Amino acid sequence: MNIIESNHPLIKHKISQLRKDKISQKDFKSLLRELTVLISIPATTDLILQKKEIKTWNGVSVEEFLSADNHLSVIAILRAGLGMIEGFQELVPQIKVGLMGIKRNKETLEPVCYFEQIHDQVQNDDVFILDPVIATGGSLIQAIHILKDKGCKNIKVITIIAAPEGLEAIEKNHPEVKIFVGVIDKRLNEFGYVLPGVGDVGDKIYGTNQDLITLKNI
């Protein structure tokens, strides 16, 4: 199984803080950034290192640094995924950042891409998709299809909270894609809301409709 759920106490603690009803916009953004850093660490264990000789305080030493042979892109799913970019860049500054917007077609109810800003050599990169909450999984299934059509072969997903139904759907469509998740929540309700969830991530980041306390992703 390519679903890697964290059992780290700090991640559990910070997600519990994220769930609070009266959380401030500032605290929500800070926690989202911190959680992105923590969850991204196990997702980046296969980065390439190279040895370099450097001067230290007591002489010369051979140390390991990230290699220039790492070709990395992050794709943030709009708009909530934007809140995760800064955290990932703290870990790996030398990345290319792309954006993808996906919404549900009102007639077919199928997810469609309405916005895409991805560099034209992305097929050569290891790609990390950033999306804070997975509900039904439809958006990510479509995003992965788009990246595969561009020739991407090594794709990973970094998310904070996921419903088991969404994870199952993604795994069924893209079994080779690794998903790194902070916590797997209980379920979706009959309207497709993640329970218990964290509320609407985009609204909480950007200060809109903060009285809304349920989240529905596609």
Automatic annotation (TrEMBL):
GO terms for cellular component: cytoplasm. It catalyses: UMP + diphosphate = 5-phospho-alpha-D-ribose 1-diphosphate + uracil. Its EC number is 2.4.2.9. Pathway: Pyrimidine metabolism; UMP biosynthesis via salvage pathway; UMP from uracil: step 1/1. InterPro entries: PRTase-like (IPR029057), PRTase_dom (IPR000836), UPRT (IPR005765), UPRTase/APRTase (IPR050054). It comes from the Bacteria. Catalyzes the conversion of uracil and 5-phospho-alpha-D-ribose 1-diphosphate (PRPP) to UMP and diphosphate. This is Uracil phosphoribosyltransferase. It comes from Paraphotobacterium marinum.
